[in-house]
Amino acid sequence: MKTLISIVVVLGLLYALVKYGIRRTTILDYERGLRYTNGRFNQLLEPGLYWHSPLSTVIHKVDIRPRFISITGQEILSSDGVTLKISLAARYEIADLLAATHQSQSFEQALYLELQLALREIVSAADIDTVLQSRGEFSRKLLELTDAKAQALGLKLISAQIKDITFPGKLKEVFAQVVTARKEGLAILEKARGETAALRHLANAAKLIEANPQLLPLRLVQSLGQSSGNSLVFGMPPAAPIAPTPSKSSAHE
What we know:
With about 250 residues, the chain is α+β, with helices and mostly antiparallel strands. Helices cover about 50% and strands about 25% of the residues. It has helices spanning about 1-20, 95-100, 105-125, 130-135, 135-150, 170-210, 215-225, 250, and strands at about 25, 30-35, 40-45, 50, 55-65, 65-75, 85-95, 155-165. The chain is elongated, with a radius of gyration of 46 Å. One of its GO terms (cellular component) is plasma membrane.
């Protein structure tokens, strides 16, 4: 009986040791681990299988694949007093895992705030026409402004681009009218260019015919030959008067 009790106690201790004394943690290829022993950082862990005691050791796993941030509906006042709603998309990755986890409580929220402030700084210093015409340049400036701050957070900012720009309702109508007027102006300009070219061609032809009058009938014949259903009537010279001839009876007289 005592032997049986001893076996049960040993099995219970082994169970408790396995359940509470030893843990297994697997770190995948796209992850890295931070090992803390007694509350202090101990080691940066690469992908693999690790055994540790949860009583004294904690392993914190972090996904290091590239991440995306989307900032939507930011209402920003341009330098000429127009309220714009701007959306932003950014792509980043963790460059320094220890700095990213130790420098801020949430590196994602910290980067979000830095991008938001940089976007407001850039847009508020420009007028609405510049914002519309220089979206690519704004994206480049945005990346420059936030790159150093992202590095301080242990991150690498891969890209940051303005996605959408939205205007107030009335301003949308104004810009639509501007675009329509611009298209109509281009159409009128193109028509004027065509008419000018046609007039220039006619002027050159008139000069050529003036210098060579014999070309006009030839050109007329050529034009008529290229089209069907036309009749060409050539003018005949006036008939000469017919002299009277004496009759036979008159001759005998």
